[in-house]
Amino acid sequence: MEKKRSSFSRYGFILAAAGSAIGLGNLWKFPYITWHNNGGAFVIIYLVAVIIIGWPIMMAEIIIGRRVKKNPVPAFEKLGGKKWSLVGWLGVITGLVILGYYSVIAGWTLTSFTKCLKWSFSGYVKPGEEAFTNFIGNGQLQLFLAFIFILATVLVIWRGVKKGIERTTKILMPILFCILIYLVIMVMSLPGRDETFKFLFNPDFANLPTAGILEAVGHAFFTLSLGMGAMITYGSYMDKKESIAKNAGMVVFLDTLIAICACIIMYTIIFSVPSVKEGVSGSTIGMLFITLPDLLYTHIPFGATIAPIFYILVAFAALSSTISLLEVLTSLLIDKLKWTRKKATIIAAGATYLISILCALSLGAAPFLSKWQIFGKGKEGVLNTLDHLAANWMLPVGGLFITIFVGWVLDEKICRDEVSLYNEDGSPKFTYKAFRFFIRYIAPMAILAVIVAVFAGWDFS
Ligand code: PFF
Q1: Percent of the chain scored above 70 by pLDDT?
Q2: Which end of the chain is more exposed for a tag (fewer CB within 10 A), N or C?
Q3: CATH no. for residue 197?
């Protein structure tokens, strides 16, 4: 007899799914791309993308997962036949690829945290110009940090859906929200506050690079953990009584709120030290791992208190995301091969770590891996290549198939049943009709635009 699948409790789904969504994408990538796209107008486009594409696709993934109560591969197979299970496989492989490099970057947050703790107690020592390059080029250290991060993820996952994932995210997420609110309040007294609000909420469309529109769509996938089956997997643990539209809406709302808060915190600090502004735009990594700690310790009141707290926040956010990434492969091994959860977790983590090894050594330690490229200049090294591959190709392609499947292939009755939004006379509610319209027309067209743009050679990773 088949074992009954665990379900999340009432708020368990929202917290776990928000945990998956909120991560380095919000605290590292979003502030950087918003800065590059000149703020205000980009934020508006991003909000529109998240509402008209992100929300419906998240609902679509949950519908698939909850209907079949299985991992993306068997879920697609059951609902659409063998051919469609390929979309599930694409998702699983994408998850493996993302986790492989994500855990390396997540490992950096551990170093930032311990360094900040040390500085807070024994005084700040400005790192030399080459410090960061040396740090990422230290192969052994990179391997160790990624290992620690994957180990932490394993320890959560192998305890199961309720005792591991739900319990951990129920602790992590409220702490994360509190730290973030505390930091937003702290920076409100800094002189850069007004400029930050103007930059973020005063849209000037003349200043928006056209490429920014597509970048917003691409980022919506990554930040909401869409296009690779993470939400299908979490949806398979969602209770039948829960409203898919409301839960998905809440996750989208929380993810967006946190991304905006991250911008408010970082920009206020940056705008408070005018001489720094120009130097920030230089590197993706720079803002979070180089500029910010320096400013916190040299210019910001209470910076020594804020800094370690901030980096533990980033580490927690990254952990709640790696949990969902590893769970996709783990649940496949459990569903398909009937392995025990412990065995599945270890094997999934081992496979992931093999990719992490290549990524960790591709930041300078192993010249061959560091120079390897298939996407041209600026994308050298295994880590950069995989990031580019996942964000530009795998997620949008996976997302496109999911919209086509739910919008055009899946029996509409299943959708209606799962979403369950009826008026008293049995006719579908406006929200359902809007969902149908967006998942059939708007979302696929927007994703196609992204894919065509990638074909045309434009990079939005
Ligand atoms: N959404 C995560 C972030 O913003 O950092 C990244 C991610 C997690 C992508 C899980 C995909 C996923 F399945």
Answers
A1: 96
A2: N
A3: 1.10.4160
